[in-house]
Every structure is written in C-alpha cells, then in structure tokens.
Amino acid sequence: LRTDGRVWNQLRSSRLSLTRWENGATCTTQWGKGTRVSCTCTAELLPPNPDRPNEGMVALSVDLSPSASTAFRQAAPVTTGGSILRSLERVLLTGGALDTEALCVTPQYWVWKLSLAVTVLDDGGNLMDASVLAALAALRHYRKPHVELAAEGSNSGVPPRWIQSDLKEPVPLPLHHTPLSISFALLPHDTAAQSTASAKVTLLVDPDAREELVSVGTLSIAMNVHGEVCLLDFGGGCELATERLREAYRLAAQHVQDLCQALETSLQQ
Predict the structure, then answer these.
(1) Could you mention a single GO BP entry for this protein (predicted)?
(2) What is the 3-state secondary structure (H, E, C) of 191-233?
(3) Are residues 186 and 168 in the same domain?
(4) What is the pTM (predicted TM-score) of this model?
C-alpha cells in the first residue's frame, strides 16, 4: 500500500466544479485531497494571424499560485509551468482536439481567439493530469456566442456584432475529441540503492507530492476514449522497458474511460 492507502494502480478521486457566464466558463478540478487546479476559458474577436488567415487562435497560460505550495513562495519552478504548458499545446493543438479552422468567422478579417488560463491553486502532486482535465472541461463547458456580420458585408473592418444568449443560444466549441492525461511516477524497488534498471522500476499511477519527490522519472500518457494517443511524455531519469510502457498504456486507457465518463456526467448536471 501507498502512504495514502491506495494500491499502485489506483487514482485519487476527482471532483469538478463548473461555472459558465455570457462569454466564459471556468472549471475547478479537485484531485484527491491535496491538488486543486482551475481553468478559465474566454473568447474575443480579432483579426487573424496573416500567416493563417483561415484559422482561429488559442492562447494558453499556466500560473502557479504562491499559495499552492511552499516551494512556490519564492519563485514558482519554471520547468513545472513550462512542462504543463507544452503538454496542453500538444494535447489541444498538435493532437487535433480543437478545430482552429472552425473558429474562423470571416477569412482574413475576423476569427475567434480563445484564451485558456490555468491556475494551480493547491499542489498535492500530479499537476499535469489535473491541469489537462480542468482545461478540457472548461473548453467543453464554454459556449461560443453567435455573431452577425456588419451591414457593409463580410469583407470589412467593422467587427461582427455579438448576439446575446437570450436571443440566440450559444454553441459548443468545435472539439474533435476529449483527450485526458494519466501520469505515473517511476520508483526503483530498492530506493536505498537508487537502482534505475528497467526491470526494477515500479509504476505508481497518479503520484502525490511525496511520491514525486522520491521518483526517479515520470511518464504521462494523454489519449481519448478510443485509445488514440495524443501525448507521450517520458522525462527520462531511468530506463523504461517496452513491457512496462505497454502496461502503462493499458492502465491509462482504463482510467481515461472512467475520467471521460465522470466528465460527461458533470457536464450534463
């Protein structure tokens, strides 16, 4: 058993708190007792990037609150925030979860720019999975307003007019699928010897803060309910045999199924 009573392949319980207003949505994820992450999604109409006139834009940010951990009091670790940010970019954009072309209102003139702001409120370990879940939940919960083009026509510099939600129901964002992340801490069987041999490495799913401190490496796998992998992030630190990687994939696929089902239930409430 682990220090919190879980077995090696057991996730902590998670709870979602969802809020939506006229042009925004927020999801706060409570991951176990010690990890809490919030993500806010908003949108605005802007001229597109000249290099991609038919695509909308997505701005991602990750903020590690000083109150989240004593380690963040002086200065939040750049590597932690940067790693979460890069993973979100790979899951949402490179992995094709979000259709940026569908965010285009008028080619070359007006597109939607989505802003996703992730804030770490409490660091009890495994910030990666909690951040990805909060970001995907906020995107799923957000509703994009309808717009009306100016009388001068679509090819004008006049911004389209927003239509209030009480006049026309906003629509969900164009998401192709909902990939979620499952992370593992890699621990040697004999921590005193600090062995990093692949055969002696143990996988611990959803590590808490103490388990992360004694781990020799981490592994994160993001996939959708169909088992299609969008992210495989292995930070090194030890050898990882193919058999262990397959074992991690099978376990991640099972947990993603459960998390996606819990997410759908929260969105329907």
Answers:
(1) U1 snRNA 3'-end processing
(2) CCCCCCCHHHEEEEECCCHHHHHHCCEEEEEEECCCCCEEEEE
(3) no
(4) 0.91
